[in-house]
Design a protein that fits this description.
It contains no helices and 27 strands. With about 300 residues, the chain is mostly beta strands.
């Protein structure tokens, strides 16, 4: 998920509480990609960072680029992708020690979803979507059917993926050969993040403070508002009924009843929660601001 502005810091959660963890030194958090309770990657302005010890220490890689979305291969913690300005895609195959840049078009890229070491989608401004099936050696432009800014991707496998953005939800079920616009009841708002649990069930965060949900993989409806109605910047689903949403003014929200109700978890008004990456029902990481990069990992939630 792409964070629009702000500055960063770090915190973590153990035994049901959230505690701070230092994560890099960038002025804002752009994205977070969790592998497990110990390993996570963070993207920020001019900075990519990785921890392998639960956030106690970080390995930083800096370049002139601004980074937004980041993703890690689900079965190999050493391989990750990050996207940024001017069509730049960065890949590491050694756990973040070094990153190789490739250029995919010229548009700013804001989102990435990593299916496996070979199959990756990226998306960004002007409705841009690219996909690789060979680990980033080559990239193919896909027709999105929109010029709206695309902010978040959730790919379940090599065939099924969803993208949300400025007043749009897109879906493919044929590996991106075609993308179709989905229906939001009352019209699609500015949807900052998407997390699909299955081909029928998923959640999307919106800047209006609502979480949207689909139960058929095609139509989307509002759930109840999260506390405070603050902008939501990211979403992560654990199951068909369980998800976290994060947003402005320190908002961390959890549902365990499919979005019927949302509980505030340690709301920290001094931080802007930018993105969330869920590992399982008890472990997730959050990237946020201010002062470096903020990561949060809960246990025993």
């Amino acid at each position: 998920m792409y964070q629009r502005d702000g500055v960063g810091t770090a915190m973590g959660r153990t035994t049901g509480t959230w505690a701070s963890q230092l994560g890099g030194s960038g002025p804002y958090a752009g994205g977070i990609a969790a592998y497990d309770a110990s390993n996570a990657y963070l993207s920020s302005q001019n900075l990519l960072a990785r921890t392998s010890d639960g956030g106690a220490t970080w390995t930083n890689f800096t370049t002139p680029d601004n980074y937004y979305g980041i993703g890690v291969v689900r079965t190999n913690v050493l391989i990750a992708y990050a996207v940024g300005d001017s069509g730049h895609v960065y890949k590491t195959v050694n756990g973040g020690t070094s990153w190789t840049q490739s250029t995919v078009g010229t548009s700013k890229l804001l989102a990435v979803s990593v299916v496996d070491a070979s199959n990756v989608w990226v998306a960004g401004v002007n409705g841009t979507i690219y996909r690789t099936t060979d680990g980033g050696t080559t990239w193919s432009l896909q027709v999105s059917g929109t010029t709206n800014t695309l902010l978040s991707i959730s790919a379940l496998d090599g065939a099924n993926a969803w993208i949300t953005g400025a007043n749009v939800v897109l879906r493919t079920s044929n590996a991106g050969a075609t993308w179709s616009a989905q229906v939001c009841t009352g019209g699609c708002p500015y949807l900052s993040g998407v997390s699909m649990f299955s081909t029928t069930t998923g959640y999307a965060s919106s800047v209006e403070g609502f979480v949207w949900k689909t139960t058929d993989g095609a139509t989307w409806s509002k759930t109840v508002a999260t506390a405070g109605h603050f902008n939501l910047n990211g979403i992560g689903s654990v199951s068909a009924t369980s998800a976290w949403a994060v947003g402005d003014h320190g908002g961390i929200y959890r549902t365990t009843d499919g979005g019927a109700t949302w509980t505030v978890q340690n709301n920290r008004r001094g931080h802007q929660m930018a993105a969330i990456s869920v590992v399982n029902a008890t472990t997730a990481w959050i990237g946020a601001t201010p002062q470096s990069a903020l990561v949060v990992h809960p246990e025993n939630s």
